[in-house]
């Protein structure tokens, strides 16, 4: 039955519409490859983790990191014995997941994403970002509101918008037969806290709902590709969701007690969570939860 019938984090400029590469040397970035199921692999480099479906029909790539890495990514795909990338799927609009769109678009790849990915790439100011709109060749050509499916490489690959949360255009990508799911930045497997980009329509409440739906669609054997960090599984994603729920409850209590945002941050409600140093600090996550509460 179709379940969709219903490591490196680049911290300097990972979430810009058109990332600035001037201050970053990508020469030393290595694209490493992990084959996680027949015809399915994950590529790690700088930026969001890349999923790849390859086989007799076509090569589908989920996210494409930064533009200066495109040749290395192409080489890694070729190293799998795969044909050149024919289809690119963007899990959301941030530049560390879409930075290679222009290069792959110029090779003839067709780009797919949620409707709001194209909207925000075409006008970064809608998300409070500076920078030029993405060129036409970098924009998704096929967009959708709820989802679609690829029937390729002896599998069904489902693209589904389950309500977003990280942004308002997050897609979850699931392979039926291979039992793999790519969560994009709805799920981080790294230190620190979730990134809820409220300026891009993100909401911690939508994030929790989306995680609940995704968790219900997978099983204990599912291989989980997070947006950032090493490969994961259902148990770890369940623990991540529980952590978010507890954090939200604590911040809600402060909000209901009439505290200001400044007072809530100063109260350090997440001090005992032991999440380590990450891209998103406890103060930033408290602020994002507060913003979500305030609507």
Write the layout of secondary structure elements.
Layout lengths: L31 E6 L2 E5 L5 E4 L5 E4 L7 H10 L5 E5 L5 H4 L2 H6 L3 E5 H8 L19 E3 L2 E6 L2 E6 L11 E4 L4 E3 L5 E2 L14 H14 L5 E3 L2 E2 L4 H23 L4 H6 L15 H13 L1
Parallel strand pairs: 4-5, 5-6, 6-7, 11-13, 12-14
Antiparallel strand pairs: 1-2, 2-3, 3-4, 8-9, 9-10, 10-11
Helix pairs in contact: 5-6, 6-8
Which descriptors apply to this entry?
295 residues; disordered N terminus; 28% helix; 8 helices; 7-stranded mixed β-sheet; 5-stranded mixed β-sheet; alpha/beta
Percent helix range: 25-40%
Uncertain segments? 1-22
Structural class: alpha/beta
Q: Summarize the biggest pleated sheet.
A: 7 strands, mixed
**Total helix count?**
8
Beta strand count: 14
Average pLDDT works out at 93
The gyration radius over C-alpha positions equals 18 Å
Order of helices and strands: EEEEHEHHEHEEEEEEHEEHHH
What does this structure look like?
The model is unreliable at 1-22 (pLDDT under 50). The strands form 3 sheets. Strands 1-2-3-4-5-6-7 form a 7-stranded mixed sheet. A 5-stranded mixed sheet has the order 8-9-10-11-13, with no helix packed on it. It has a two-stranded parallel ribbon with strand order 12-14. The chain is globular and about 60 Å long. The protein is an alpha/beta fold and 295 residues long. The longest helix has 23 residues, at 234-256. It has helices spanning 70-79, 95-98, 101-106, 115-122, 204-217, 234-256, 261-266, 282-294; strands spanning 32-37, 40-44, 50-53, 59-62, 85-89, 110-114, 142-144, 147-152, 155-160, 172-175, 180-182, 188-189, 223-225, 228-229. Helix 6 (234-256) crosses helix 8. Strand 1 (32-37) and strand 2 form a beta hairpin. It has 8 helices and 14 strands.
